[in-house]
């Protein structure tokens, strides 16, 4: 715990004095994030850092591989879907983006097999991405990169199975977007009609 407490002390010394007014305003007026981000839980990929955001701007959902499940309103536990519902219907975000990344362990597990220690929850969770594995990579493509990209596409497709996402998207009130972050190079690519294009 010491490393966390020391991090907090550093926050109080270096960050809090300059950001105090922002936090006080957020506490007084509540949050009003402009974007909901679905991202992997990978400790190397922090959406707030990648997008240069400050507290209060992003509503972030993180899970293994940054997956969005299809719309399934039943009695099961749906943490990602619950957070989507809150961000879109309660907070009223104006955009939803899926942030994939290079060297994703979740995607590697889908392709090569989930480690034996992660069979209780990870193995069934990554089954969501099974349709993405049906698209084999082109001969010239790196397989894991290809599947990392396909998982972003699949999650975006699954978002449209939620009626309260599909309708505002169709009406132009909500925008969807896909990105991929390369940990090694720090490069961000955005999904376009032609594929993932580096952000200049």
What does this structure look like?
The protein contains 8 helices and 6 strands, in the order αβαβαβαααααβββ. Strand 1 (35-40), helix 2 (47-50) and strand 2 (58-63) form a beta-alpha-beta unit. The relative contact order is 0.14. The protein has 2 domains: 1-29, no CATH class; 31-195, Carbonic anhydrase (Beta-carbonic Anhydrase, Chain A, 3-Layer(aba) Sandwich), CATH 3.40.1050.10. The chain is an alpha/beta fold and 200 residues long. The model has no long low-confidence stretch (mean pLDDT 95). It has helices at 2-29, 47-50, 79-90, 105-112, 122-126, 130-133, 143-159, 163-170; strands at residues 35-40, 58-63, 95-101, 175-181, 188-192, 195-198. The protein is globular, with a radius of gyration of 18 Å. Strands 2-1-3-4-5-6 form a 6-stranded mixed beta sheet. The N and C termini lie far apart (40 Å).
Secondary structure tally: strands: 6
Question: Which strands sit side by side, in order, in the main sheet?
Answer: 2-1-3-4-5-6
Poorly predicted ranges (pLDDT <50, ≥5 residues)? none
Predict the CATH topology of the largest domain.
Beta-carbonic Anhydrase, Chain A
What is the fold's blueprint, element by element?
Layout: H1 2-29, E1 35-40, H2 47-50, E2 58-63, H3 79-90, E3 95-101, H4 105-112, H5 122-126, H6 130-133, H7 143-159, H8 163-170, E4 175-181, E5 188-192, E6 195-198
Parallel strand pairs: 1-2, 1-3, 3-4
Antiparallel strand pairs: 4-5, 5-6
Name the features.
200 residues, alpha/beta, Beta-carbonic Anhydrase, Chain A, 2 domains, 6-stranded mixed sheet, 8 helices, 43% helix
